[in-house]
Amino acid sequence: MHEMSLMESVIAIVCEMAQLNGASAVKSIRLDVGVLSHINPDSLLFCYEAVRRGTIAEHAALEINRIAGEGWCLDCGKTVPLDERFGACPDCGRYQVQATAGDELRIKDMEVI
What we know:
By secondary structure, the protein is α+β, with helices and mostly antiparallel strands. The chain contains two helices and six strands, in the order αβαβββββ.
């Protein structure tokens, strides 16, 4: 379950940035998680409950936005939707597709008090 270490890193970054900016508490956190990232949102939520305790983010709400997979097909020369990493182009069926979106884990924003 790599989600535990990922969420520990997210909380560490959020708390550090909040404290550097003089905040006393984090009210909410929004994450972008790509569908190609191999990160399970339910596991992230489970880990979030464990790692936020005792931090200034202890009472913060967590929102996870799923980002669709997208790639650039070198054979078609166009942007196509991707359901899996290294998947075939849905238009031509070839595998010369470079992923351009959907593999991210990003702190989109946070609200502090």
